[in-house]
Amino acid sequence: MENRTESDLDPVHVWLSVVEQADDQRSAAHNLLLALATSLRDEAGPDSAAGLALRHEVSGRPVIDGLSVSISHARGLVAVAAGRCGPVGVDVESRRDFEIDGMARRWFDPAEVTWLYRQSDPLEAFLRLWTAKEAVGKALGRGLRGSGLRRLMPLDSTPELLPASLPAATVPSEPHLVVLPLPVQADAVLAIAVPVGVSQIRLTEHHGAALRSTVTSRTSFPVVVRGN
After folding, report:
1. Is there a contact between 62 and 70 (Cβ–Cβ < 8 Å)?
2. Are the CB atoms for 64 and 51 separated by under 8 Å?
3. Residue 128 in contact with residue 161, Cβ under 8 Å?
């Protein structure tokens, strides 16, 4: 087998889709993940998509043989991620007004609370932290269990919440993982956790009409945004 360096790791693919509130979001997320997995298997060859199946571990973690996958759904949105690089985690939250002070002071580290209230938009900052923690927990395979909300997220590399310019940063307690927000056109906050060394994350938003644009983060992580 050919040896591969960390910089050779395959891209991680993220698909985001709008769903009707009345629809079963869990089923919509599963269908979207199977569609993404099928597209990746098709790239590998005509026989690789045969027998594609989604199952769940006892913990609830989704599993598709041959891929690392993750699922998230929020109000009117579902997000899925898949790659061959190792564990991945994705989380999406719709933007909405709600009380954050009690939750932040109960669950976040004091340094994170201090950082949060130094931002120009504390609610946006709260969602950035929450989705980052969720994404990392999913990549680890245990979600927010075991004090996942208290797991410190990188803060020094997060400048004033500019959507297209937030660089990936190593998770302090999990140095094999990096976490970063992805700029999306939907009114939502989305975070992805991937192994260190992944060189590309490809994000596709499904909104019915074609929406095509390309953005690049400040790190070595080119983020290709494509719309279907």
Report:
1. yes
2. no
3. yes
DSSP codes, the chain: -----GGGPPPEEEEEEE--TTS-HHHHHHHHHHHHHHHHHHHH-TTTTTT---EE-TT--EEBTTBEEEEEEETTEEEEEEESSS--EEEEEE------HHHHHHHS-HHHHHHHTTSS-HHHHHHHHHHHHHHHHHHHTSTTTTTGGGSPPP-TT--TT-TT-PPPEEETTEEEEEEEEE--SSSEEEEEEEETT---EEEEEEBSB---EEEE-SSS-EEEEEE-
pTM of the prediction?
A: 0.83
Q: What pLDDT does 148 receive?
A: 80
Structure tokens at 93: 């939250």
Q: What is the pLDDT of residue 8?
A: 55
CA atoms of 80 and 145, how far apart (whole Å): 20
- Mean pLDDT in consecutive groups of 10 residues from the start of the chain, 228 residues: 54 90 81 92 58 83 92 92 94 93 93 92 94 94 79 68 54 92 91 91 76 41 56
What is the pLDDT at residue 218? 37
pLDDT at 215: 40
Domains of the chain: 10-227 (3.90.470.20)
Residue type at 205?
E
Tokens of 124: 């946006």
β-bridge mates for residue 82, sequence order: 13, 69
